[in-house]
Amino acid sequence: MLFSDSLWIWRNPQKALQLVEVQNWDVVESAINEGHGLVMLTPHLGGFEIIPRVLAQHFPATILYRPSRQEWLNEVVETGRAYPNMHFVPTNLHGVRQMTRALTRGEAIGILPDQVPSGGEGVWVPFFGRPAYTTPLPARLANRNNTPVVMFTAKRKSIGKGWLMQATRLAPLSEDATTAATELNVAIENAVLIAPEQFIWSYNRYKHPAGAELPPRD
Length: 218
Prior knowledge:
Shape: globular
Strand order of the largest sheet: 1-9-8-2-5-3-4
Structural class: alpha/beta
Number of domains: 1
Number of strands: 9
Number of helices: 8
Low-confidence stretches: none
């Protein structure tokens, strides 16, 4: 269903936008109006692909993504995700620099917080009771200039009825990487529990990426 949602959103963006019920938009407006940009977190839940398109109706969004190893699939995804006011950057130093510049301009950046980072770029913290290699990048970017962090979900309604998009502003994340990643995973868990049957559980959230230290034995 998640894959079908994504394809339909990519091919019918304007129709898809008409099927989004947005709640708590005042949270987003208040955050962006502070002038420090916005860190947008969107777990792989429901119609998550529609979220940056909703934001792009109001202000530019720079989205971090990991290119596929398969060139043909990467072309399909990049073509499908292309949309006005949305700029995609790869998960490398160049991409992080572009996101930093976007925040400096007071714009939004988007990160998939439940994606496992490369070895050496994350920390092991609990996720639903098991150690998961987690990125502290959202905290690092947000803490540079007191940028608001907002968790977004797009819960799928019944088939053909669209999505319920909700926004929750998180408390400032810790300066400590491990503590910040723990806080981030708690926020992801809360988002997943909104519609656990719509989360992409098939993605190995608990994998051990090459180059990462071993997870704690307990």
